[in-house]
Amino acid sequence: MLHSTRAALGLRQNLAQFMLLVAVNALVGGTLGQERTVLPLLASQTFHLDLYTSALTYILAFGLSKAAMNYFAGTLSDRYGRKPVLITGWLVAIPVPLMLIYGPSWERIVAANVLLGISQGLTWSTAVIMKMDLTGPKQRGLAMGLNEAAGYLGVAVTALATGYIASAYGLRPGPFLLGAAYIALGLGLSVLTIRETHHHAKTEAFQHVSAHRKADACLTTGQVFTLTSFKDRSLSAASQAGLVNNLNDGLAWGLFPVLFVTSGLNVNQVGILAAVYPAVWGAGQLFTGAASDRWGRKWFIVAGMIVQAAGLAIVAASHSFGAWLIAAVLLGLGTAMVYPALLAAVGDVAHPTWRARSVGVYRLWRDGGFAVGALLSGLLADLYGIPAAIATVAALTAASGLVVAVRMRGSDHPARQKLV
């Protein structure tokens, strides 16, 4: 009798719900994408912020609030269920487009990004957790690739669209009306079509044949934080790589548009470059996530960090649209290699009973990279110029890849990795 009530695991068995969650995450990405092209230009052209450190405060606010909510999303979804957390994330986003459209001061724009970070932390984290719940261990890389591809293709399409809207109709209000439509649609889908998946995680925990010690299934939240952040070799390597990855994404978000405009590119060209990077990132994950299921996570992550570093170095050394386009492709390709493999690596090692919390801790560190990137790149740009800031972050990205090479355990069967 008990056996008959267990949820079926697997992508094929849960395809309809999985694809609905993919669609929801595309809308989550689009909600973020409304800012990628426009907000750096709003800072310089509308609010006349001269210091890069000041202009990047919106990324700092976004990164801190998103990182914090990533952490709580895992704990809350274990306690109250996944769906209520997802819906709450959409509700928090409702005021954001209005604040971006009508905000009379930069402080109001920063406040909007605090809310956006909270919303993104709740919605994106929960979408990740729900897909892990549905698919089980065998296709986790594929699931994460599809999830992140949808999200960042949403970012890319919206960054491109808002670039064209801004060039035709101005920086406000047009680009942010698109974000408002995404929020309305995402909330409606989440309320009406998405079903709870927590019972799938409980089924996997019951079936879990693991090399983990028995006690590993019963960790406190504090123990999960320490293990994911510092103690376990693979989890801690993933956490630092995630932080550095989003550090360089925060730099790209905040400083690339300013660099491109001051070098003579028009808003349409800036929109193209702002879209190509997440577009390659998004589309590439359709392949890299599944490939990491077959060949393991570690070397995808190492190679991806090195490719990102190369793309950043080209941006720092170049002065033309063509060179920057090549760099954007490299940066997107490297990130596509890293992103789903890192998430899947955390899912491989974490026990199903505390996996949501471990994913939350990893995403705390990863999206904390936005805040670190905003502070570091802003200070370096103010002191030494944008190219020097980009070159420094390129070196940090390469070093992070080397840390993964040394510290993370490799495995031909990534779902069978053991805790240290």
Q: What are the main properties of this structure?
A:
about 425 residues; Growth Hormone, Chain: A; about 80% helix; transport; MFS transporter; cell membrane
What does this structure look like?
By secondary structure, this protein is an all-alpha fold. The protein has one domain (12-416): MFS general substrate transporter like domains (Growth Hormone, Chain: A, Up-down Bundle), CATH 1.20.1250. Helices cover 80% and strands 0% of the residues. The protein is built from 17 helices and no strands. Helix 7 packs across helix 10 (198-207), helix 8 (140-169) runs antiparallel to helix 9 and helix 8 runs antiparallel to helix 13 (267-295).
Total number of helical segments?
A: 17
The secondary structure category is mainly alpha
Level-2 CATH architecture: Up-down Bundle
- The helix content is over 70%
- CATH-defined fold name: Growth Hormone, Chain: A
Count of DSSP E strands? Answer: 0
H/E topology pattern = HHHHHHHHHHHHHHHHH
Organism: Paenarthrobacter aurescens (Arthrobacter aurescens)
Membrane topology: Multi-pass membrane protein
Keywords: Cell membrane, Membrane, Transmembrane, Transmembrane helix, Transport
Domain Major facilitator superfamily (MFS) profile: 9-412
